[in-house]
Amino acid sequence: MKRAFSGRIWILLAIFLGALVWLYDSLLDAFIFYQAPFLDMLILRVPARELAVRASVWIALLGLGWMISRHTSLQSRRGAALRESTQMLMLLLDGVQADIYVGDLESYEILFTNRHMRESFGGDLVGQVCYRALRNETQPCGHCPNSQFLDEKGEPRGVIVWEGVNPLTGRWYLFHDHAIRWVDGRYVRLQLAVDITLIKKAEAALIERSANLEREVEARTRQLAESQARLLRAEKLAALGKIAGGIAHDLRNPLAVISNAAYMLATTLEQGDRVDREYVQLIQREVGRSGEIIEALLQFSRQSPPTRERVNLKWCVQEVLERCPSPPGVIVDQAAGNWERTILFDRAQLQQVLANLILNAYEAMESAPRHPSHCLRLTPREANGAFELCIEDTGPGIPEENLDRIFEPLFTTKKRGTGMGLTIAQGLVEANGGSLRAESLQGSGARFVLTLPIATQETAAIHEGSGRSGMVEEGQNAMA
């Protein structure tokens, strides 16, 4: 402002001095050429036309000076207003909490950055190429939208919105890019980048939490379905047990009579017809089988609540294997694993379950074609936070259609099976807080997986003796 005012003063002073010089020349001419008194010459002897011309010139010079002064004043005010607007715009851009920069569309040169961006990237980037200064690349970025800002006519298309991670800052940004006309008339790229890292982290956390909730809901739903299935099964088995117990008691006496009568017939027919003797023997065999079924039903109906205690798995398995020796041609393989696990289970019931599964495996391998390496494999393993004992055989396996039925009461594929062994075994395992499932290795055997509850420090006192009391009787477990 002071410089502009000083310039106007000098212009006016020059015009005023010029007017004075012109007036002096006019007076000097009048005095020299007209040789009259000065006042008379100035007023009376100068021709009116010349005087008017000279006055007009003087007025014109004064008007020109005024116009120049006014124009200079306007230009000065406009410059001041422009500088003030520019300063205000810079303050606004520097106050924005986002990275803003202007870059050339062809050379990728950075023409302007705001304060937030200078602070984000540690200095003024003007004059550098954007892909090197902002992303530490040696050539333009593959996703650079510079070629998309202008249409076929060379006019701006509009705003391009995208998001991405900056490799230098490691943060997520939401970018708003569009073309604007620069001070020199060319189109340049204006980018506003908003840091959305916290939003992205929140989104990731929300997605992870949602996935966790879905897994939890699925797990809880599955647990609920399993619990309901176990409850329904327990109710069915309880009802079946009552019925079975009553039927078994009612059938015992008639079967005893039939058995005695068959014995008497066999005694009287010792020297009789061979066919008659065979029929009597058939009656005796079937009466014996019926007796086995009745005993199984009675055992099923008399299941008592388990007395759970801390049991050493290794000792328990070893005792069952001693009581149930393998038949000829069958190898027993106790695979490597944590055999020293202490589980929480009713000792006698665990031995009964193991004996049932082991004897079933022996029978399955005996019924299979001769094989030089029939093997019973027992494998302890940790799986999904639980402890499992796998019992595998190399028998014929379980047909797929029977997998869902083998634990049903009275279902059996054996010629002399009762169909109660696996039902009782599964009931005992579930009563102790575990589970029992079957897997078919069709053509190469079957696998039964026992999930056993692990004993913790908070459980009852340790009972890890030899545990030879409470063993089931041999032959009682091969009922499946």
Largest sheet, in brief, is:
5 strands, antiparallel
Q: What name does CATH use for the topology of the largest domain? A: Heat Shock Protein 90
Query: What's the helix count?
Result: 10
What's the architecture of the largest domain in CATH terms?
Answer: 2-Layer Sandwich
CATH superfamily of the largest domain: Histidine kinase-like ATPase, C-terminal domain
Spans of at least 5 consecutive residues whose pLDDT stays below 50 are 460-480
Chain-averaged pLDDT: 76
Text of the CATH class of the largest domain: Alpha Beta
Strand content: 15-25%
The structural class is: alpha+beta
Span between termini? 110 Å
| E-strand count | 12
Described by the principal axes of the CA atoms, the overall outline is rod-shaped
Total number of distinct structural domains: 4
Task: Tell me what you see in this structure.
There is one protein chain. This protein is of the alpha+beta class. 51% of the residues lie in helices and 17% in strands. It has helices at 2-34, 38-45, 48-95, 115-121, 130-135, 197-268, 274-301, 313-323, 347-367, 421-431, and strands at residues 99-104, 110-113, 160-165, 172-181, 187-195, 309-312, 330-334, 342-345, 374-383, 386-392, 435-441, 445-452. The chain has a five-stranded antiparallel β-sheet with strand order 2-1-5-4-3. The protein has a five-stranded mixed β-sheet with strand order 7-9-10-12-11. Strands 6-8 form a two-stranded antiparallel sheet. Helix 1 (2-34) packs across helix 2 (38-45) and helix 6 (197-268) packs antiparallel against helix 7. The protein starts with a helix and ends in a 28-residue tail after the last strand. Residues 460-480 have low confidence and may be disordered.
